[in-house]
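Cont'd.
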Amino acid sequence: MPELVEVERYRRLAEGVVGRTVFAAEVPDPWIARDVDPSVDLASVLVGRRVASVHRHGKLLVVSLGGGPTLGLRFGMTGTLVVDGEPGVDRLLRSPPPTPPATADLDRWVRFRLRFARPRGGQLALRDPRRLGRVVLDPDEGALGPDAAAVTVAELAGALRTTAPLKVRLQDQSKLAGIGNLMADEILWRAGLSPVRPAGCLSPAEVRRLHRHLRATVDDLVERGGSHAGDLMAQRRPGGRCPRDGHELVRSSVGGRTSWWCPAHQR
DNA sequence: CCGGATGTTCACCT
DNA sequence: GAGGTGAACATCCG
């Protein structure tokens, strides 16, 4: 569920550790580092490094370390970032107990953690119940398409040159980075476009319309605080109705993902 | 109690 | 190469 929107919030949270020095790196669950070269000791390449900067590309959070590798954090479906005991989002769909914000709970499912040296101290942790997230070294940002929060209409048009369904292409991270299942449904609903249209058959006017709604939706959901905060979200259920025209929504699988859309106004 | 659903990424197939 | 399928994971819900 962490899509661009959640990871943007994680990024803002992680800004707080810029300038701190890594005192210790803990990997309580090595599975989370399954992409790291086994001959590399993750802790030893991180310890002693100063956090130089933090940035986000799509759903990838990148922590740059002075004189060392960059650290990439991917959050899968249920990953959250916790900095100094403060979670990046209040609540994640399909995530365990939203309620008791006890510190013991925040320690559960921590798969990776950086502890920082005094005097500033503190910590940054990746908490991920389902272990679909990853910690990587020197992530290949070149493999990602343009960030959806900044994509231009020309870039979007380029990304749509395919016969694949529109929704599938919006979620292809190598073509456009940051959009996940929920945001894709919300964007297409707002733009009045069917998820199953071949992406390449959009007219130039439709591409411009999609671009406008895409950018607005990203901004909107960042402000509202989550990819689950869209207008369509409450109706993504059997019997759900289009908030715009009241038509019953259709549920189907597009590119292997559950999709909800309005057959009346999404064409 | 168990099958199905959940969303993202990647390995594998055609 | 591009597109499609299913596995990986843990938890929840009916």
